[in-house]
Amino acid sequence: MAIISICRGTKSGGNALADCMSQKTGYPTLGLEVIEQAAAQLGVAPEDLDEKLEDRPGLFDRSASLRKLYLAAIRAELARQVVEAEGDIIYHGLAGGLLLKAVPGVFCIRLIAPLDLRVQALRETERMDPDEAEAYIQEVDEARAQWVKTMYGEDILDPTLYDMIVNLETFSVSETCQIVLAGVRQPEFKITPERLERIQDFRIASDVRLALLDDMGTQTLDLDAQSRDRVVTVTGEAPMYSRTGDVGQRITEIASSVSGVKDVVLDLEWFDPYP
Amino acid sequence: MGTLLPPGSDPVQVPPGTVAVGQSRKDEAVAVITISRGSLSGGKALAECLSRKLGYPTLGREVLQEAAESLGASEESFRGKFETTPGLWARLTQERETYILAVQTALAEWCTRGDLIYHGLAGQFLLQGLSGVLRIRLVAPREKRIEALLESMHRMSPEKAEAFIENVDRERARWVRVMYGVDVNDPHLYDLTVNLRTMSLDTACAAVVEAVEQPRFRMSEEAEAECFSFAAECRARLNRITGG
Prior knowledge:
The structure holds two protein chains of two kinds. Chain A is of the alpha/beta class. Chain A contains ten helices and eight strands.
């Protein structure tokens, strides 16, 4: 069928919708546990990873490179799980629409709910008083919007980022489930063998990016990786003295070590570090 | 805005079926669907697809013609005044208020006749607060909209097509901001927003059908009474203003 990605504000019913869709489709759900699994891969505590990710990036952002690494780890873990599920998965964790932007067959839903409903939900689960709950929701919403702006240059409220936006002021979670399924089950979201190959390419590119950010020799370079038919192209900038030296070779070694890679192409802008 | 009559204000109590504005509602589930969208985003095509699947009639800008006739104005001048964003002074004049009320009345009276798909301007505002109304927002990528425009206007260059669409979007957004004080792109104004970036029109249609078939959009007796009352209220107010 399709990869279903659910984006929502805090206390907007995302978990409940994921559970409902899972019951109707039999697909596994994946949420915040992707952070735990990514943290385990990097050997850091999930709380540290979560904290760095949720940090509002500032002007002098000392955590920028660490955040980039953590985000790459989450993307790689998400890609791995999508491949494992052969594209039949419901993701309701961090930034699904943005992390899966390059992947075909993703149905991206945003849930919106009026503030009073969300305040009510928070009062019931966390026993907050109304003012405290409202302030909390506004703070989390603002931080998330700022985070998306800084990391992806996108406005989280932009309706063009989502395939469907459902207003929970009108529809219940189970009604939303029915409406979303009516869309997801259509041919344009079907995971075909060709799309599975693209998903595999996404997994490979995500793993290469993570490996480059996790290596002492390459992590300070501004590199990106794409994969097509399992041939990886690494782009970005590298200092000129390394053109024939070991940096280019190191990049190739790292990319080649990722499982499934057939070949590596370097498409780098070389610059003179001592002009 | 003073022109927008919220249902229930200044009510004229009229029991269902007593207002001679058209045929009475059928017994089965009925609903009104409003489709808001940018120019060339496929709104009319979605309305037609929904009409085929649900059997509801569609209504677009024709409502302006009815409203113009009810005021004895020409459709062209009516349209110009209704659709363009007013300046500061014009905002305060009663003429514009009358025009909007005439459109609201014509649309509300259409709703009393039963199922309806409205894909004209400002449906979500003109019928704001009425039960049994499903408010859809249709979003389409700019490239697809440019392509649609170029197909219908062979002599237009892509640059001009893009500029045209930008201009229409800007004007429409300004109109909504000035008249209703909100951002037309805010998804909270709608029950469901569908995006044609990947989704085909048929898929969007299937999702909207699923949405309107949810029990909450089956018009209850109370919702039906509310609808008739609203139409009568609009008509009475329009008559008071125009002396009709």
